[in-house]
Amino acid sequence: MRTQKAFKNMIYNGLFFVLVSIITFFTKKMFISSLGNNTNGLNSLFSSIMSFLNLAELGVGGSVIYALYKPIQEKNYSLIKGIISFYKKMYTYSGVAVILLGFAVTPFINIFIKDQMDISKVQVYFLIYLLNTSLSYFFTYKLPILYVNQENYVISKYDSSIKVIKNIVQIGILYIFRSYVIFLVIETLFNITYYFIINKVINKRYKVIFDATGSIDIATKKDLFKNIKALSLHKIGGFVVFGTDSMLMSYFANLNILGLYNNYLMVITFFNSLIAKLFEGLVASIGNLIVSTNNEKTKDVFNKVYFFNFCLVSFCLVCIYNTINKFVIIWLGKDFILDRNIVTLMLINFYILNMRPSIDRFKEAAGIYHNDRFFPLIEAAINFVACIILGRYLGIAGIILGTIISSLTVIFWIRPILVYKLVFKSNALEYYINYAKYLFISLAMLFSSNYITSFINLKSNFLTFVVTGIFSAIYVNLIFIILFRKTDEYSYFKNFILNKIGISSKRK
Fold it and tell me: Which residues cross the membrane (predicted)?
């Protein structure tokens, strides 16, 4: 049952995400052609500032999800209702804090803008953006019930449907009115619609929970606050490492450069988010696994998830590297191409970041927040210093390089050690040996495929892109089959997929 739900979540999350992303790329093209690349850069800056303001959330969501695993498994509806009520109260406080901080930041937003713009208009844009983003704090406190029950697909279904309609309307608005204000207002109205629908669905599916008398014991509340304190440090560290790049780029360069970077980032973020969506559906399954089985079984499952993580990331890495410039030319035009060295650094960062989900999901599912609470701050300090120094001399490339340096100095080492020690009760050396092996294979596939695809130069840019993409995908999968066909991990996923599509892997 656990595996069935995990697979269903992965498929639904992945398919719905791809559907929404395709139309989002059309929206982005219309956005840039209607409002210009500077407004595109401004939108990216707003997103970065909101990442800072969202630190007020303090990691409440993660701690609540972990706290719900046991009571949901035991059907302790009173405790579940108590935890959700606690979550609602904390998120209301966070939402108010975000709004107040947003109003406080608004008069100083021009600090990050070097371009000549009407600052009063920019401030109005930001306030609408602020309202849209902060609304989630007041309407999403019931969502953890679906996550912990492994029903992420319910969220994906409604969220994706609303987003598809929203993007179609926004494309029409941009074509007719060419107005950033109306674009943001439409975003807000559709988000409110989604919150209304998803809450109605949750109320109906889990009526027994909301009809219960909620209560939360002192021990549970103490654990919640302990994890919130630890997660708040993780959030601060995560923001400094991954959330400040746009602000620093805007400060050291300009909105146009930031817009170019953001276009490439949108492509890479598509794959970041797809990988995250696929792994998101596994968290509850892992949490249930940890509380119901032994260390050896849990470690065996991790090795399979880690292998899947590697295959997914290396496949994406090779395909993106070989096709991204070709895609941007088709999508936006030759004037929007970034320097190849910057793209390479972005993809190095992509690989490091996306080889984390396997270890991160086991860490989250096991509730390991307190033990490494100070390390994200160390990583953040290294990142801030490296980005400021390197950004000053190397511009965008320096800021990305600073992020890479900080990612490899602290969390890369600490998280696997903690998970292996506390969850698997074993040494993490095996993790790093596999990481080195996987990295070598990824680089070998990347360089060899890039050399071969450099000879693909057809008359049509679109055909060149398609042929390069198809070749890259087939090439990577052939290498996987040749190298791993006799391993337990490969056999497991091959049989799993064949069984799902109704084909027996046993020979007659």
Answer: 12-32, 44-69, 90-113, 125-147, 168-197, 264-284, 305-324, 336-353, 374-393, 399-423, 435-456, 462-484
**H or E element, residue 322:** helix 295-331
**Position of tokens 């065996």?**
300
Q: Contact 113/255 with Cβ under 8 angstroms?
A: yes
Phi, psi of 410 (to 5 degrees): -125, -75
Asked if 315 contacts 94 with a C-beta cutoff of 8 angstroms, the reply is no
d(Cα 223, Cα 63) in Å, to the nearest integer?
9
pLDDT at 507: 43
* 293 DSSP assignment: S
Listed by start position, the domains of the chain span: 1-247
Q: Note the pLDDT of residue 433.
A: 98
- Which alpha helices (DSSP H) does 135-214 contain, by range? 136-139, 143-148, 152-177, 180-205, 207-210
Question: Which of these, 239, 229, 228, 223, lies nearest to 376 by C-alpha position?
Answer: 239
Q: State both tokens at 367.
A: 């509730």
Given a contact cutoff of 8 angstroms between Cβ atoms, the answer to whether 263 and 40 are in contact is yes
465 closest CA partner among 313, 269, 325, 267: 325
d(CA 62, CA 67): 9
Strand ranges, E, within 86-132: none
If one counts every other C-beta atom within 10 angstroms of the C-beta of residue 508, the result is 3
Burial of residue 450 (number of CB atoms within 10 Å: 0-12, 13-18, 19+): middle
- HSE toward the beta carbon, residue 153, CA cutoff 13 A: 14
Helical pair 119-134 and 37-53, crossing angle rounded to 10 deg: 50
Q: What residues contact 266, with CB distance under 8 A and at least 6 apart?
A: 25, 28
**Is the pTM here over 0.85, yes or no?**
yes
Which contacts (CB < 8 Å, 24+ apart) does range 32-38 have? 32/259, 32/263, 32/332, 34/174, 34/175, 34/178, 35/174, 35/178, 35/180, 35/183, 37/255, 37/256, 37/259, 37/260, 37/336, 38/115, 38/117, 38/255, 38/256, 38/259
8 Å CB contact between 3 and 143: no
Q: 382 near 355, Cβ under 8 Å?
A: no
User: Alpha-carbon distance 57 to 35, whole Å?
Assistant: 32
Q: What is the pLDDT of residues 126-174, one digit of tens each?
A: 999 999 999 999 999 999 999 888 787 888 889 999 999 999 999 999 9
Give, as one character, the DSSP assignment of residue 76: -
Summarised one tens digit per residue, pLDDT across range 48-81 is 999 888 887 777 887 888 889 889 888 999 999 9
Question: Half-sphere exposure of residue 68, counting CA atoms within 13 Å on the CB side?
Answer: 28
Coil, helix or strand at residue 214? coil
What's the DSSP call for residue 454?
Answer: T
